[in-house]
């Protein structure tokens, strides 16, 4: 109850202030349009209620650029070129020395060890011809021999094949001749046999075989009466 007088005093003062305000408003209304108190209160409330929000600064995240890795090119090693070995040329067989007595006129040497024939004229080598002599078997081997080339036989047949450009040499278990490679006649065409043996190994039945074109040349050269030397066949080389 001690606070009641004070409360009354406050109430009286508030009423007095209110009367002053109302009276002032009435006076003002005589000279100016009366403003709606309700509007003022609403405006005041709106202003008070409206908070001016201070916009927060927008932070734009700046991405830190990732360092681009620089590719260091690894040098490619240069391949080492292995030199290709230079093919060795096949050495030209050294002819058997021509006997002194055969250095004048025409002469022929047949070296059975290397299956080659050398043709000379007046001591000069005029042609080297691959040959195939008799096989290293009984009754087929070409024996070593020295003498003169006999007469021209021409074409003959033996052992089921035909041979051209034949020249007689000597007799040994049958006639020994020089002639062209054997062939079979098929529909009028000569099919030559065992040409791969020429200059490589003995394959005949005792005669000396020549390539067909060399056999023709030999006949044109005119070998009749020419000196001829046939060296012995090394048995151990062609077994």
Structural account:
This protein has about 240 residues and is α+β, with helices and mostly antiparallel strands. The model is unreliable at about 25-55 and about 55-90 (pLDDT under 50). The protein has a domain at about 100-230: Beta Barrel (L,D-transpeptidase catalytic domain-like). A hairpin with a 2-residue loop joins β5 and β6 (about 160-170). The termini are far apart. It has helices at about 5-30, 35-50, 210-220; strands at about 105-110, 115-120, 125-130, 145-150, 150-160, 160-170, 175-180, 185, 190, 210, 225-230. A five-stranded mixed beta sheet has the order 3-2-1-11-4, with no helix packed on it. The chain has a four-stranded mixed beta sheet with strand order 5-6-7-10, with helices on one face. A two-stranded antiparallel ribbon has the order 8-9.
The average pLDDT is 77
| Binned strand content | 25-35%
> For the CA atoms, what is the radius of gyration?
66 Å
Low-confidence stretches: 26-54, 56-91
User: How helix-rich are the residues, as a percent range?
Assistant: 10-25%
Summing up helix and strand content along with how strands pair, one would put the structural category as alpha+beta
The CATH topology of the domain at 100-230 is given as L,D-transpeptidase catalytic domain-like
Strand order of the largest sheet: 3-2-1-11-4
From N to C, what is the helix and strand string? HHEEEEEEEEEEHE
Largest sheet: 5 strands, mixed
What is the CATH architecture term of the domain at 100-230? Beta Barrel
What is the H level of CATH, i.e. the homologous superfamily of the domain at 100-230?
L,D-transpeptidase catalytic domain-like
